[in-house]
C-alpha cells in the first residue's frame, strides 16, 4: 500500500486538463465493442476502470489498439459477441459490471463477471431484476458478484428505476437496444444521460418524452438496432476536476483554468454547488460534440463571503453530484456556512462506505460534524489539522482528503494513495503542479 504525504499549500494556481470522463469512456468502449467498424477515441480516460471495460470488450471479440499518439481504436464485433474463454474481469468498476451485464445479456452465451473485493461487496440485484424480466438468466452470489449470465433472446419491458442509478438505466437501455420490441424506462430522479447521447452518436434512435403532470419523463428504445463506428473525443472528467474546483475554494487568491472539460448539464450541477460555497466560475468557451458539452472554465474564490447558513444538498441534487460528495464533505469544514448532505444512502454502497470513511477521516483531522444514515451535517468555519488518512483503497476518498490536507495545519499522510489510479492516475502530479507552497 503506497502512501503520499500532502503538505499544506498557500494557494492554488495554474491550468489543468483533466483526463477523459470515466462515465463516457465506459460507454464509448462498450458501444464501440458492439458496433460494426473501427471507432477511434481521443482523450479516453487514463483511469483503470474504463480500461477494465476495454479489456472485457477484447475478451468478447473486439479488437483494441492503443496508438502511440494516445488514441484508442476499437474494432467492434458487428452485433455478435463471442463466447469468452475466461471470466470477464471488471476490476474495481461497478459501471463495467452493471452496464456490461445489459450489453451482453442478449447474446446466446454463458458469461461470468468477476471483480475485486470492493466490487464483490456491491449490490447487483438492481440489474438482475430488469434483465431477468427481459428473459436473461442471471445468477448472483448472495446478491453480489460473481455473476453468471445465461444470455439469449430478450423481450422489451417497461421499467421504472427504483433508485436513481445511471448504471441501471444504462444496463436496461443497452439490453433494450438488442431486445425484440420497444423498451421504455422512467426515472423518478434524472441521472447522467451519457448513455442516451452515446447511443445516438453510434447511430441508435432513442426518444425521450418530457415529464408531464403525474407522468415522469420516459425513454424509449426500439430493439434490433445496429450501431456503427464513430470518431470521438472524450470530454474531460468533471468528477476529477471537482477535486481542484474544491481546492480553489480554500484560498482567497486561487486561480484555476480547466480546459476541454465535460459540462453535460446532468453533471454540471457541481458548478452551482461550487458557486454556492464561495467559488466564482466563468465559462470561457463551450461547444457541443456528440451531444456532450465541452468547455473551458476559470475558477476563483468570490471576494464576498458566501452565506454563513449551511448549504443543503438533498433530493435530485444529491444524485447529480453523488461522486463529488466525498470531496465536498472533506472541504466543508473550511467553508463559511458548512454543508448538509441528505438522501445520500447510495454513498454507503460505492467503492467503500463513503459516509463512514469521510466521517472517520474528518474526525482524524479534528473536524466536528454529525453522521446520519443518509448523509452528514458539517459545520463550517473549522480549521483542520494534518492526520493519517484511511482511504479504504477508495480513489475518491484518497483524493478528497488530499485536497482537505492543502488547507490543514501540518502534513497529512494518505494511506492507499495509489487508489487514485482508478479514475485519475495523474492526480498527485497535478496537485504538485497547482499547489503553491
Ligand atoms: C456512473 C453512475 C453513478 C456513479 C458512478 C458512475 C455511471 O453510479 O456513482 O461513479 O457512469 O453511470 P450509479 O448509477 O450507481 O448511481
Describe this protein's structure:
- The protein is of the alpha/beta class and 437 residues long.
- 30% of the residues lie in helices and 26% in strands.
- The chain is built from 14 helices and 24 strands.
- It has helices at residues 22-34, 48-59, 94-104, 117-120, 125-133, 166-176, 194-201, 238-248, 269-276, 315-320, 325-331, 354-364, 395-406, 427-434; strands spanning 3-6, 11-16, 38-42, 63-66, 72-75, 88-89, 110-114, 137-141, 144-150, 158-161, 182-187, 206-209, 218-222, 231-233, 255-262, 279-289, 292-301, 311-313, 339-341, 370-372, 375-378, 388-390, 412-415, 435-436.
- The strands form 6 sheets. Strands 16-17-15-2-24 form a 5-stranded mixed β-sheet. The chain has a 4-stranded mixed β-sheet with strand order 4-5-3-14, with helices on one face. A 4-stranded mixed β-sheet has the order 6-7-9-8.
- Strand 20 and strand 21 (375-378) form a beta hairpin.
- The relative contact order is 0.15.
- Shikimate-3-phosphate (S3P) is lined by residues 23, 26, 95, 165-167, 170, 192, 322-323, 346.
- Residues 23, 26, 95, 165-167, 170, 192, 322-323, 346 line the site of shikimate-3-phosphate (S3P).
